[in-house]
Target: Wall-associated receptor kinase galacturonan-binding domain-containing protein
Amino acid sequence: MNTLVLFLFLFPFSCVSSSPNNCPKCGIMDVPYPLSTSDNCGNPNYKVYCKNETLEFLSSVGFYYKILNINPHTSSLIISPPFIQKHSCQSSDLSLGGFKIDENSPFNISSRNTVMLFNCSENILLSPLNCSSSSPCRRFEEANEGRNCKNTLCCSYLKDSSMTSHRIRIRNQGCTAYISFVDFKAEESINAWRYGIELQWTPPNN
Model:
């Protein structure tokens, strides 16, 4: 009898302590565990930021990117790439070298991203990237968002294990602008391309 009473006493406690501690919504967006907007919820190793009711991801070099979508079932989220500045072919994070995640972070750039680079120097032609006239970056140059980069040298590549999963690099004397699409299909209309950079996270040990 004493054993049964002890079990009934401990069982509810163990259920409560193991429940995920979700953070409050940020605007209209849910913040599922393990993502954390404060020290009181989520897992602090999975920090995101709620600013003016907009959920954002902070890169390791101090640039904030708006979070567009979160899928807790696939441990992934999609952030918005920085805009390409008007009247120039430069991404707004150019001075910081582009997008970068700390290599000790539980986040990484997924392999479902197709990255397009613009205004590149000719040195990039020595790389294995697709810089040909058939590269999909040429189609993006025809869209409103890409017109500032029209007639520059552009290249595209699928983010995979052969390239760093923690960085999309741009720089002066290199490529000065970039864009990214998730699960890209070249045969689709440009209006159907899914704009964003997909990040995955490694689930916490607990």
Notes: The first helix runs from residue 2 to 18.
